[in-house]
Amino acid sequence: MGKLYLVPTPIGNLEDMTFRAIKVLKEVDLILAEDTRTSGKLLKHFEIATHMHSHHMHNEHKTVENIIKRIQAGENIALISDAGTPAISDPGFLLTRACVENNIEVDCLPGATAFVPALVNSGLPNDKFVFEGFLPDKKGRQTRYLALAEETRTMILYVSPHKLVKTLAEFIQYFGADRQVSVSRELSKLHEETVRGTAEEVLRHFEAKPPKGEIVVCVAGKTISKEKRKDDE
């Protein structure tokens, strides 16, 4: 029986590609890529000639069964996303679950993931945190905010640049204008930037300077009063 490799790819800086990731991608029988055009540039840069198939959110339900059969027949297959670690707000969960259910070995390599550096450099507590990924666009968005308003751990979200100002305004509405926020964009790239401050301060910054690029937002959790903490104890 073959094996499934989950291989992280750089989130911007190609120097973040690991030697092991290159070795695995060169040795496997097939690479599953979220976008073969995007991944094709990466493979060309590292002189990786392994054949690719498309595997993305629109076809993964249909392709999983065939991939499982190929691995069971002895093929080693690697899964990559456009950037970062597969299955983190990208395709990968369905295939990984299917492999586990079929007793197929899954090996996830360590590597680039956008939310980790964003959390670490935010200056917000990182001993406990919750990763929310992308919030719902419409249905369920308010419900999610109402739940997160009571969250005491640092919250991590992925936000598209054209929705950042709206999202920061929603933070003020649901969390309060003084809630601490850290916005990291273009991590590992030439124009990397992290803006920290209250929700109101960060909103004003990006109203004046419309954001571009990939964005990770960290939000401080709700502060528990000393009286409430004593009651819980």
Q: What features would you highlight for this structure?
A:
2 domains; five-stranded parallel β-sheet; Cobalt-precorrin-4 Transmethylase, domain 1; elongated; 233 residues; 36% helix; alpha/beta; single chain; 20% strand; Methyltransferase, Cobalt-precorrin-4 Transmethylase, Domain 2; five-stranded mixed β-sheet
Walkthrough of the structure:
Helix content is 36%, strand content 20%. The protein has 233 residues and is an alpha/beta fold. It folds into two domains: 4-108, 3-Layer(aba) Sandwich (Cobalt-precorrin-4 Transmethylase, domain 1); 114-219, Tetrapyrrole methylase, C-terminal domain (Methyltransferase, Cobalt-precorrin-4 Transmethylase, Domain 2, 2-Layer Sandwich). The strands form two sheets. Strands 3-2-4-1-5 form a five-stranded parallel sheet, with helices on both faces. α6 (141-148) links the parallel β6 (129-133) and β7. α3 runs parallel beside α4 (93-101). The radius of gyration is 20 Å and the shape is elongated. It starts with a strand and ends with a helix. The mean pLDDT is 94.
What's the helix and strand layout?
Blueprint lengths: L2 E4 L12 H9 L2 E4 L2 H10 L6 E3 L5 H13 L4 E4 L12 H9 L3 E4 L6 H6 L8 E5 L7 H8 L5 E5 L5 H12 L4 E6 L7 E6 H10 L6 E5 L6 H7 L1
Parallel strand pairs: 1-4, 1-5, 2-3, 2-4, 6-7
Antiparallel strand pairs: 7-10, 8-9, 8-10
Helix pairs in contact: 3-4, 7-8
Protein name: Ribosomal RNA small subunit methyltransferase I
Catalytic activity: cytidine(1402) in 16S rRNA + S-adenosyl-L-methionine = 2'-O-methylcytidine(1402) in 16S rRNA + S-adenosyl-L-homocysteine + H(+)
GO molecular function, one term: rRNA (cytosine-2'-O-)-methyltransferase activity
